[in-house]
Specification:
alpha+beta; Immunoglobulin-like; 4-stranded antiparallel sheet
């Protein structure tokens, strides 16, 4: 019913619009730009009658650029309505309503009904985002970049609203936008998780861990790290310090169990056995020397006695 009403209004006003610009322009007086504008407007009327909407829109827009007569806004609004571009149709018709003098608007007695009909096809969307520079898409068409000061006017009906920014998880909302009503969206973008998880265990049980030179806790340990190669150092009482590396990718969980070697006891240390060897060798020398004492040679120069000397190897 609404569609038929709109068609009736547009058809009825179509004939009336043919004379609107001519009447208004003649009241304003002559001029080269005005005459050329009127000629383009005439071409637009012919294109509109032939349902060549693209051509009609171009002629009307060029005519308005030459001479901004408010009456041309009405004609262009009709073209946008015929093309189903309701927000653009509403914008032109509202400008006509605001800018046209009363005598010109009197030529369109059903303007209020036409505005109400077109408004019923237009929904308003207000988007607020906590991140500046986010791109707002309506029905896969870029509608603006945050912050968006002016509300977005779109055709009523089902729509997908998306808000995206590099480094953040895209926001997506699917809903039906009602004509003549306003939808307010407050979007808080969530940063993308670019890190990975490093999960460490050690054969020493509780071992302190440093990752890239930073103390990070005690095994078993889970820690979030940037993607890449990381230097790990593990320390535990009774165990030798262990150094290794691990590569973690974005979004990856890397599980590692690191083997740590126990420190050897005192009997297992080389320097202990070297010391013991020296003592043993020294003891053998002394013992051997004591056991090899012998009688001194008799003679005039030496008193009877016992002498001993070290064994030489």
């Amino acid at each position: 019913m609404k569609a038929r009403t709109l068609v009736f209004l547009l058809s009825w006003l179509c004939a009336l619009s043919v004379c609107l610009v001519a009447v208004h322009a003649s009241a304003q007086g002559g001029g080269g730009n005005r005459e050329e504008s009127a000629a383009l407007k005439k071409l637009g009327d012919n294109a509109m009658d032939a349902l060549r909407y693209d051509d009609a829109l171009k002629y009307y827009s060029d005519a308005y650029a030459l001479y901004p007569d408010p009456a041309i806004l009405y004609n262009r609004g009709r073209v946008h309505g015929a093309r189903g571009e309701w927000p653009l149709a509403l914008a032109d018709l509202e400008r006509f309503d605001h800018e046209a003098p009363n005598d010109l608007k009197a030529k369109v007695p059903l303007l209020a009904q036409l505005l109400a009909e077109v408004t019923s096809h237009v929904a308003t969307v207000k988007v607020t985002c906590d991140q500046p520079g986010a791109r707002v898409f309506l029905r896969q068409t870029l509608a603006g970049t945050t912050p968006i000061a002016e509300p977005l006017k779109v055709n009523a009906g089902s729509a997908v609203i998306e808000v995206t920014k590099d480094g953040f998880t895209p926001y997506k909302d699917e809903r039906t936008l009602e004509g003549g009503k306003t939808v307010e969206l407050t979007v808080a973008l969530v940063p993308l998780d670019t890190k990975g998880t490093l999960a460490l265990k050690s054969t020493a049980g509780a071992a302190s861990v440093s990752v890239d030179g930073v103390a990070s806790g005690t095994t078993p340990l889970e820690t979030r790290v940037d993607p890449g190669t990381h230097r790990l150092v593990l320390r535990a009482d009774g165990y030798e310090d262990t150094e290794t590396s691990a590569v973690v990718r974005t979004g990856e969980r890397r599980d590692l169990e690191i083997e740590m070697r126990k420190k050897p006891g005192i009997l297992g240390r080389w320097w202990f056995w070297a010391g013991v060897g020296a003592v043993v060798v020294g003891g053998i020398v002394i013992t051997y020397a004591l056991l090899t004492e012998k009688s001194a040679s008799s003679g005039d120069n030496f008193a009877p006695a016992q002498v001993s000397g070290p064994l030489r190897f």
